[in-house]
Amino acid sequence: MYYIINKFLQLARQIKPEFSEAGENLIKGYYVASRTLRVNDIQLWTPPIGAVKVVTALSEAHAKLCLRDVVTEHDAVMAILLYEEYVTIRSGNKSMVIGNSH
């Protein structure tokens, strides 16, 4: 089993994924929306510009684990969900809630 996992990881490391336009736009849109929501709500924590780099790296890693050479919207969504979980744990505020919370 260790051999199979090791071979899989070697293969994944060799992939250099390129961003699809949709994946790139989703990450940019997330950052702008997240920053706007958090600033408007006057929360204690706003996402730094480095958040884009983190979400980008997570998106690329997800694409590699799926053995794809293109970062898709799906990869970007998974990265955003992971980053939002980190933000929630760090600040206690989950800002990317859609719809009424009633």
UniProtKB/TrEMBL annotation:
| Organism domain of life | Eukaryota
**InterPro entries assigned:** MCM_lid (IPR041562), P-loop_NTPase (IPR027417)
Q: Start and end of every MCM AAA-lid domain?
A: 5-86
Q: What is this protein called?
A: MCM AAA-lid domain-containing protein
